[in-house]
Amino acid sequence: MGWDSDYESDHRIYNDDDDRRIYNSSDFEDYEEDESDDEEEESDDDEDDDSGSVEEVKDETVEKFIRTFHNGDFDTEFDDALSVERGVTFRSTARPGASYNKPDNWQERNRIGLEKVEEQLQGLFNEVSQDKHFILHLIHGQDDEEPIVWHEPILDRYWDKVEGKINRRRQLGRVTKIRDMCIRNVEMTKERLAAIVAILSIQPTFLRGTATNSCKVVIFDNVNLCEEGIMCLSKLIEISLELREFRLRHNRIDNMESARCLSRSLKSHTCVNQLVLTHCDLGSSPEILFVVLQSDVEYINLDNNNIDSLGAVKIAEYLESDPPIEGLCLAYNKLNDDDAILISQAMKRNTNLVTIHLHSNNITSIGVKALLTCAFDSSSLNAISESNHTLVGMYIFSQRVNESLRGCIDRLLELDRTQKIVLALQDKESLLKYLTNVPVELIPEVLAKRGRIVDEYQHKHLNIVYSTMRWWNMPMLYSYHHDCCVKSNTKRKRDD
Hints:
By secondary structure, this protein is an alpha/beta fold. It is 50% helix and 9% strand. The protein has 21 helices and 10 strands. The longest helix has 25 residues, at 106-130.
């Protein structure tokens, strides 16, 4: 199942076996071994050759972007892209709560909706009677802005018929499989939810059938859940052993105990890998937001939740703990540049997150640069090595803007640790700047490795090496290697 908003369901899982460590010579030694293996396995079609990554680094536009974005060279492009995004009107996130206050004419408005719901419940009854497999769906309108159909006692008669038919089939030893569940814009009372969970909780025996719960997707959109209703859904998650995706949209979660119950159910479930909690107003309670995050579901969508700086603190705290989450959607919230800086610092310590969505917030070019810095901190070679190398998708702009800019960001995130270091050493000025802080004994390895990777730029490489040889630190390098040679010769003589 796909994500809401612009989440890309065809994301790539990026595997990087490198652990986070301070830059040292082993970074280059590991790459040398990989490079030699590639040369041995090289084929005519070059499909498996890693040399394609060198071609990526060749792109001058991408090189310039990666090396200079932190200097402000692309601030205009960032701000232009963000201004286009702000010009788009998005749906309000204030719907939970306000829409649950019944308007004066709610009975008149409810009448048409009730008729449609009654027809659907009768259809469910027929499906249960005719087939042992069915989807429990009850949908009023396809638009999220459709008014909710409030529950009235007349609906209980139809629900009772459906549940009674399932029970009769069970008593006759027949199996009724519920494949998926989707209820949208129809109020669900706690009593009705409890009855559904009770039916699905009955265990099969040798002498009787059962309503087998084979749900892989459970969706409850705008159903006016109360605290007890969320508790029932937590139980539903526990008994849905094949569940993959759980969506709870346009439902306020404002009780800590029910939030903990929901989080525990999701965390203990072995199959759920997508959690969608959009339009749930989680930003109004950062503590509840933190509890929901601790469900540790693989992909969590928290779009449209009024999350501001208080929530950003909890998000950063969660990401910094390096949880197993791989995808996080935070679009259409109220995050600012300070929040972006905080989240960026947390992501720098995270080794599991693969994609993050942050578009349509209150972020400017300052926040954009801070977020990109988590993947390429060019302040030093150590900082580059300690950057995040597992993140492959960072969606700061909407799909509508500047494909070239998005392409540069994508190319940056495709680089691994060694490629980033080599790219940083690509020109003379940056090379000398970085070598200033490199231990003198590692300088030959840095230059040698850089030369092997970019030997197609031989004339440029020779000019940089020549400039480096005239550098003020070279006497120290000569002295270091002279002492090493003397010690080595002395040791050999002793051994002889």
